[in-house]
């Protein structure tokens, strides 16, 4: 297998495109550059170029990530926060990302998801059904106090 090597200008152009069609975090871009067999000095130059020209912005990435995962995948705050931490996002940017989620909208979306899952889960109002629904909502990243309060209200 023959490895292709890129000049700094070719790599800049490639990474500009990579960052322009989807928001990226620094870690993703760094891995992409390492995959292109770039030397550390070239990586620094390219990363600086991407940041200075606003192709790479971690706060913008974190906000976009939080909005998308919440609205499209119905993730809760805990899972979003953990995923951002795993991507090396700073605490400041995680807080900014969480501000993108409207508390009233969050509660309404949680209630709708919980009701939907409760209705679609087989079984009577048994302990097994409660556990299945609770496990699902906790995996989605919703806060445990919300989950257990909702399950208790659904059982009544």
Care to describe what's here?
With 156 residues, this protein is mainly alpha-helical. Helices cover 71% and strands 0% of the residues. It contains nine helices and no strands. Helix 1 crosses helix 3, helix 4 crosses helix 6 and helix 8 packs antiparallel against helix 9. The mean pLDDT is 91.
List the helices and strands and how they pair.
Elements (H helix, E strand, L loop, with lengths): L7 H13 L5 H10 L4 H13 L5 H14 L5 H10 L4 H8 L4 H18 L6 H13 L4 H12 L1
Instruction: Describe the global form.
Output: elongated
Spans where pLDDT lies below 50 across 5 or more residues: none
Rg is 21 Å
DSSP strand tally:
0
Overall mean pLDDT: 91
Element string (H = helix, E = strand): HHHHHHHHH
Helix content: over 70%
Structural class: mainly alpha
How many distinct helices?
9
Oligomeric grouping of the chains = single chain
Largest sheet: none
Percentage of residues in DSSP E strands = under 5%
Distance between the termini: 64 Å
């Amino acid at each position: 297998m023959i490895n292709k090597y890129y000049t700094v200008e070719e790599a800049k152009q490639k990474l500009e495109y990579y960052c322009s069609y989807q928001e990226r975090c620094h870690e993703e871009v760094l891995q992409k550059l390492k995959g292109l067999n770039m030397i550390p000095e070239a990586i620094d130059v390219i990363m600086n170029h991407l940041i200075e020209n606003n192709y790479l912005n971690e706060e913008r990435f974190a906000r976009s990530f939080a909005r998308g995962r919440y609205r499209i995948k119905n993730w809760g705050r805990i899972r979003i926060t953990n995923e951002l931490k795993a991507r090396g996002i700073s605490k400041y940017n995680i807080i900014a990302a969480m501000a993108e989620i409207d508390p009233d909208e969050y509660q309404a979306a949680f209630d709708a998801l919980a009701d939907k899952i409760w209705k679609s889960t087989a079984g009577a109002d048994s302990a097994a059904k409660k556990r299945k629904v609770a496990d699902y909502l906790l995996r989605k990243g919703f806060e445990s106090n919300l989950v257990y309060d909702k399950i208790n209200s659904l059982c009544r």
